[in-house]
From TrEMBL:
SUPFAM superfamilies: Ribosome-binding factor A, RbfA (SSF89919). HAMAP family: RbfA. It comes from Thermochromatium tepidum ATCC 43061. This is Ribosome-binding factor A. It comes from the Bacteria.
Length: 127
């Protein structure tokens, strides 16, 4: 893949991310989707498909149900709305994927904080 094609798919993905964030905030009124955030959109080189990575807040929300809802009920609506906003010959099929990296990162940070606190209490208790 040439650098130019890579840049184009990245630009399209970034624009789709921006528009999807606005659509989800302003057009989608389902309370189950009120606290999702789109983190990244990866578009295939042929523009046939786009993976939309999202997270839920709070982290213990039912991400599987949200992913299913986005893919079965809203993907078509959002794709149509994107097509009206963007000037593309082909509008990619949207595939929503729950991104667990932020929740995993938060969990690791919590574990580190716990280990540091435990180490600190052992060190202070040993003096």
């Amino acid at each position: 893949m040439s650098e130019r094609e890579f840049d184009r798919t990245e630009r399209i993905g970034a624009e789709m991310k921006r528009i999807l964030a606005v659509l989800l905030r302003d057009q989608v009124k389902d309370p189950r989707l009120a606290d999702i955030t789109v983190h990244e959109v990866r578009v295939t080189r042929d523009l046939a498909h786009a993976k939309v990575y999202f997270t839920c807040f709070p982290f213990d929300a039912d991400a599987e149900a949200q992913e299913r809802l986005l893919n079965t009920r809203l993907a078509g609506f959002l794709r149509h709305a994107l097509a009206q906003e963007m000037r593309l010959r082909v509008m990619p099929q949207l595939h929503f994927v729950h991104d667990e990296s932020i929740a995993r990162g938060q969990h690791l940070a919590d574990l580190i904080d716990q280990a540091v606190a435990k180490d600190r209490s052992l060190t202070e208790g040993g003096h």
